[in-house]
Write a structure and sequence with these properties.
Helix content: 10-25%
Order of helices and strands: HEEHEHEEHEEEHEHH
Radius of gyration: 19 Å
Shape: globular
Bound molecules: zinc ion
CATH architecture of one domain: 2-Layer Sandwich
């Protein structure tokens, strides 16, 4: 007689799980979810976001340009949807945008040509770095636990002024330095800043009246940190030994 085997159930992919978790934290704070297209114009992906004409990110070596559609590309960041969104909405507003982005680079344990990103944008009156810091600290504690210690470090991104990199105190060593944090005691987690006045202007928003913040984070990186996965390619290999653990 044939033995009755228990039917195998499907599993959600870890990147789906973490995307839903992150988006859920922001929608609980009143953020709207906005989705943009994966094929974008050079204008929305670069010009509208204040990226200089000669910026190296525009190179053939970094961006997938579409052969038969001049001036179009696979978006390199989800921010490509920010200016179109601003044109269609009147402040104050806040939104998060999850999605795939593409970079033309060699793959290794921490780089893939496609990866998943979540970006956020908030525009209102008198928005400052303090609002950004409070929002991100709340978010990181919801995702990683109440003992998260976070810091801002000055950084340059063309679409924000000022720009910051956000680091978290290393979970593994508690800040004393280990191989996971390259002995710095800190782990880089996301990029953010106050929206550049040129970007607001491109979105039809008066930078004298309104200000805002934006942030962006790699979902793959969040998942690697949350679950201790050390090779990003595992998420795209379709290996059930990974997926079945979730
Ligand atoms: Zn460490």
């Amino acid at each position: 007689m044939m033995e009755l085997k228990q039917e195998e159930k499907g599993h959600m992919h870890p990147l789906t799980i973490i995307t839903r978790h992150v988006v859920g934290i922001f929608t609980d704070m009143g953020y709207e979810v906005a989705l943009g297209p994966e094929i974008e114009t050079e204008y929305n992906n670069f010009d509208a976001l204040n990226v200089p004409k000669d910026h190296p990110a525009r190179d053939m070596q970094d961006t997938f340009w579409l052969k038969d559609r001049p001036g179009e590309l696979l978006r390199t960041h989800v921010s490509a949807h920010q200016v179109p969104y601003m044109k269609e909405h009147t402040p104050p507003f806040k939104m998060v945008s999850p999605g795939r982005v593409f970079r033309y680079e060699a793959t290794d344990a921490t780089h893939e040509v496609q990866f998943h990103y979540i970006e956020g944008l908030l525009v209102g009156e008198k928005i400052s770095l303090a609002h950004l810091k409070g929002t991100l600290e709340y978010f990181l504690k919801k995702l990683f636990g109440d003992d998260v210690i976070m810091r801002f470090r000055p950084a340059y991104f063309p679409f924000v002024e000022p720009g910051v990199e956000v680091d978290m105190r290393c979970f593994k060593c508690g800040g004393s330095g280990c191989s996971s944090c390259k002995n710095s005691g800190w782990i880089e987690i996301l990029g953010a800043g106050l929206v550049h006045p040129n970007v607001l202007t491109n979105g039809g928003i008066d930078p004298k009246k309104w200000s805002g913040f934006a942030f962006g984070m790699g979902v793959d990186r969040l998942a690697m940190l949350k679950w201790g996965v050390d090779d990003v390619r595992l998420f795209y290999s379709g290996d059930l030994r990974l997926v079945n653990q979730f």
